[in-house]
Amino acid sequence: MYEAEISRRNPGLFLFLLDQSRSMSHKLSGGERSKAVEATDAINKQIAELINRCTKSEGVRHYFDLGVIGYGFERSGAAGLISDAPVPITEMENVIKKMETRKEKVDDQEVEFQYPVWFEPVAASDTPMVSALKLAKEWVEKWVQDHQYSYPPVVINISDGESTDGSPTDISKELTELSTKDGKTMLWNCHLSESSAQPVSFPEDESKLPQEKYASTMFSISTVLPDSMLAIAREEYQDVTTGARAYVFNARLEDLIKLLDIGTRVAYSRVK
Amino acid sequence: MRSQSIIFPKVGNTQAECEDYLMSDDLNMRFAVSDGASDSVFSGLWAKCLVDTFSQYGNLSGNPEEIINKIYRNSINLWHDKIEWSNLKWNVKNKSVLGSYATFIGMEIRKSEKNYRVNCIAVGDSCAFIRTNKRFESFPIKDVSGFGLHPDLLWSGHGEPIFDDSPLEIPDYEMKNYTVEQGSKILLASDAASKWIMEGGIKRIDDLTTYLNPEKSYWDELRISGEMKNDDISIITIEI
Question: Residue A58 has what pLDDT?
Answer without folding.
Answer: 86
